[in-house]
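Subject: Re: docking follow-up (flavin-adenine dinucleotide)

Dear J.,

Thanks for your patience while I sorted out the input files. As discussed at Tuesday's group meeting, I've set up the holo structure prediction with flavin-adenine dinucleotide included as the bound ligand rather than trying to dock it afterwards. The sequence and the ligand SMILES I used are pasted below, so you can double-check that they match what you have on your end before we go further.
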Amino acid sequence: MEIEQWDAIIVGGGSAGLSAALALVRARRRVLVLDAGAPRNGVAAHMHGVLGRDGWSPLTLLETGRGEVRSYGGEVRSAEVTGAVKSDEGFVVSLSDGGRHRGRRMLVATGLRDEMPDIPGLAQHWGTSAVVCPYCDGWEVRDQRIAVLLTEPMSAQQAQLLRQWSPRVTFITDGQDVPDEIRRELVARGIVVEDRAVAGVVTDDTGGLQAIRFTDGTLIDINSIFFRSGVRPNDDLLVRLGAVRDEGPDGAWVRVDATGLTSVPGLWAVGNVVSSSANVPVSMASGSVAGATINGDLIKEEIRAALAQAG
Ligand SMILES: Cc1cc2nc3c(=O)[nH]c(=O)nc-3n(C[C@H](O)[C@H](O)[C@H](O)COP(=O)(O)OP(=O)(O)OC[C@H]3O[C@@H](n4cnc5c(N)ncnc54)[C@H](O)[C@@H]3O)c2cc1C
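The structure tokens for the complex came back this morning:
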């Protein structure tokens, strides 16, 4: 099968990848976006904190973005990239359907996977009432009954943060130890610390989240559950291409500079694949910077080629 040639290949068509594509296509570059179609916030009906698009569906945002990239001649295709190798002329990526493409530059914006706490019944509320981000979903549950699950040491801080949105916050320790000082800080701000072991969550007849059930059979009514999910970057392609990772408090993450350039020349990475804290606006911004930087890098290569040809 013939290999198609591109100035830049972008793997992942979420807000990070599409923003990079938009910068590049408007710079008249030949760009291919390959996207498996499962953005991290695809489960959420609404997206918040995105200036000018607050309350939009995340999927509508991406559909609109794909249309914008295509309107300048960019290609956005549904595809899963399974491998990539570096060559003198750039990168060759392979798709699950056997297709291959060559790009002079490559950008990976494949996002991350959230790992939920193992609590029976919780998964069915993921993205609606079982959520991770107070800035994304806190306003919608202001003044309501909010539970915060202890999943890691930073969870107490998340409970303190949620107290900004509601006076009715319960910190669910599920029987785990909480240092005395942290416990005092929580109680001082009116946060209830609940130490009983959790058996599961209760769903009402309409499919909504109703309560937390403890192993002693008792319940507390709640409207939403916040927790810090385990986050795992979808960075296999980057690692296999030799990108260096740095060990951090939440695992190893691929190292990038302020433009998203990895340790591998010609290879960029932006959005949640390299930063667990990047929300939609931050992912867009990092994609936009990377797109412009890739264009600048291509121009440098073109100057070198022009000089070589001029002798
Ligand atoms: C429940 C929930 C609600 C959220 N709500 C908000 C909110 O209200 N406001 C906000 O600002 N942020 C919100 N976020 C955060 C938001 O989801 C992320 O900031 C954003 O999705 C990151 O964009 P991204 O482009 O890096 O990754 P993603 O949006 O996850 O996009 C990555 C894309 O790459 C594709 N991909 C992965 N691997 C491959 C491969 N091998 N080949 C081809 N394609 C691949 C995926 O299918 C996906 O389409 C929320 C997150 C969650 C979990």
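A couple of observations from a first look. The pocket of flavin-adenine dinucleotide is lined by residues 11-17, 34-41, 43-44, 47-50, 80-81, 109-111, 114, 127, 131-133, 136, 234, 271-272, 278-281, 283 (CB under 6 Å). The CA atoms of residues 201 and 212 lie 4 Å apart.

Let me know if you'd like me to rerun anything.

Best regards,
T.
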